[in-house]
Amino acid sequence: MLESALRAANVEVLDGELENTYRLLTDDDVSAGMRTQAIGRLERDGVDIEEVQRDFVSHQSIHTHLRECLDVEKNPEPADRVASTRNTVGSLETRTEKIAANNLERLAGDEVALDGFDVIVTTHVTCDECGRRHEFGDLLEAGGCECRLDADQ
Q1: What is the pLDDT of residues 35-79, one digit of tens each?
Q2: pTM
């Protein structure tokens, strides 16, 4: 419902923004101020927030329905978990790049002396064992750090 309400209001939705807006409206860990800001933005965009919130179904409700009514348990295969992790971090990197670029575009020329630019976000992991630094996706593809992989053989 949130997605259709945003689209009906002709609001451009960036990758990950829908999930973040839902989190801001529903998550117990979100401050009242952040929730109020999210609601205010939606209302300014012409979204009927009460209608959207009436249609929310919690993750826990869906999980309970699948487990108790349909006898379905979620036990993803390890390869699926790695792919899911890669996709999640990749989406966050892309979203961070877009947000940074949008903000820099607003500042460029006035507050920040910058004419052209590229924003590149890459997640790196440093192994506590050997100190090697790995690009996140490469580490997942390799199945771990070389020091651990060599030790397991």
Answers
A1: 899 899 889 888 888 888 777 776 677 778 888 888 777 666 777
A2: 0.50
Q: Which residue type, as a one-letter code, is found at position 94?
A: T
SS3 118: coil
CA distances from 105 to 86, 119, 120 (A): 28, 11, 15
Token pair, residue 79, equals 């390869």
Report the length, in residues, of the chain.
153
Q: What contacts 59, CB < 8 A, 6 or more positions away? A: none
Contact residues for 99 (Cβ-Cβ < 8 A; gap 6+): 14
Task: Tell me how far CA of residue 41 lies from CA of 11, 24, 36, 51, in angstroms.
Answer: 11, 12, 9, 15
Task: Please report where in the chains the tokens 């379905």 appear, as a residue.
Answer: 72
